[in-house]
Amino acid sequence: MNGKVCIVTGGNTGIGKETARGLAQAGAKVVLACRDTGRGEAARDDIARSTGRKDVEVIALDLGSKASIRAFGERFRAAHERLDVLVNNAGVWRSARGTTEDGIEATFGVNHVGTWLLTQDLLPLLKKSAPSRVVVLSSKLHYRGRMDWEDLQFERRKYGTTAAYSQSKLANVLFTKALARRLEGTGVTVNAVHPGVVRTDLMRDYPKLLTKLFNLFLLTAEQGAECSLHVATAPELAGVTGEYFEKSRIKPAAAEALDEAAQERLWALTEALAA
Ligand SMILES: NC(=O)c1ccc[n+]([C@@H]2O[C@H](COP(=O)([O-])OP(=O)(O)OC[C@H]3O[C@@H](n4cnc5c(N)ncnc54)[C@H](OP(=O)(O)O)[C@@H]3O)[C@@H](O)[C@H]2O)c1
Q1: Counting atoms of ligand 1 from 1, which one is nearest the CA of 172?
Q2: Is residue 208 over pLDDT 90?
Q3: CA 242 to ligand 1 center in whole angstroms
């Protein structure tokens, strides 16, 4: 990865931080895109200490804010002429309904809409830097996801944590497939991954005792970063696009994720929301 430039969203903690560390270790110049730059800087210092790389950078990004996403893109382009890997890692699992700065239901807004807009904003640079890669953190829970087209943002139905999260992770795979189609022939690939069930801050909303018990059975964040790192860097995956990976292997995604009409319906709807 020497000479390559990579962005990891949510690179300040959990799977994102270990993904960033792995990319830096492999020789890449890494930018941590974080909503809390103080936490981002702490992660940057830790990655610098463990890898010896002094060029890890932090740029503020709130995926719940279109203004912040655009400002991130501008700052990134002002400092970098290329982008080789975009790891769309940041995500939330919310126990109660909330909204982003732009007024979109937060799970859908951050996990899908913000991720969609950031990727769109960075696409010209990814194309210019081809061959380049986009990695989208989905989840095995996307198999349980159902797109409620009449109420994607839980405005009419009761908010359900797993329903909201699974729907957003299904949206991540629908997005991956629709984007791969649009990127055919450009040299930019896009793939979705499930990182495993990993001990991170993701369930920070939940009672501490419950998460402590649950955590006993989970992968470490370092193990959770393996699949993202493989999809972002493995030479044998050059040209592989539109796939869903688990344990670093391609697996068929949920039937609903393969539905081209659903992929396009979500694309059009997201385009309108992100405008
Ligand atoms: N852990 C698992 O078992 C598991 C399983 C399947 C999929 N995943 C997926 O893996 C990805 C990483 O999750 P994780 O487990 O490492 O969770 P985590 O430790 O909670 O990390 C999530 C990251 O996303 C960032 N983030 C949240 N909202 C954001 C926003 N509005 N703008 C920018 N960044 C934001 C967080 O920043 P702050 O620290 O500032 O909040 C944090 O850096 C997520 O997409 C998650 O859905 C995780």
Answers
A1: 45
A2: no
A3: 22
Question: From the centroid of its chain, how far is CA 131?
Answer: 19
Shortest-distance atom of ligand 1 to CA 140? 6
Indicate which residues carry an active-site annotation.
165
What pTM, to 2 d.p., does this model score? 0.96
Residue 4: pLDDT over 90: yes
pLDDT of residue 269: 98
149 — pLDDT class (breaks 50, 70, 90): very high
The per-residue pLDDT for range 222-247, each reduced to its tens digit, is 999 999 999 999 999 999 999 999 99
Q: Is 145 in the pocket of ligand 1 (CB under 6 A)?
A: no
Of 92, 79, 77, 80, whose CA–CA distance to 35 is shortest?
92
Cα gap 208→216, rounded to integer Å:
13
Distance 258 CA to ligand 1 centre (A): 25
Residue 19 tokens, joined: 């993904």
Ligand 1 lined by 110 (C-beta under 6 Å): yes
Asked if 233 and 193 touch (Cβ cutoff 8 Å), the reply is no
Tokens at residue 269, please? 């709807």
Cβ–ligand 1 contact at 200 (below 6 Å): yes
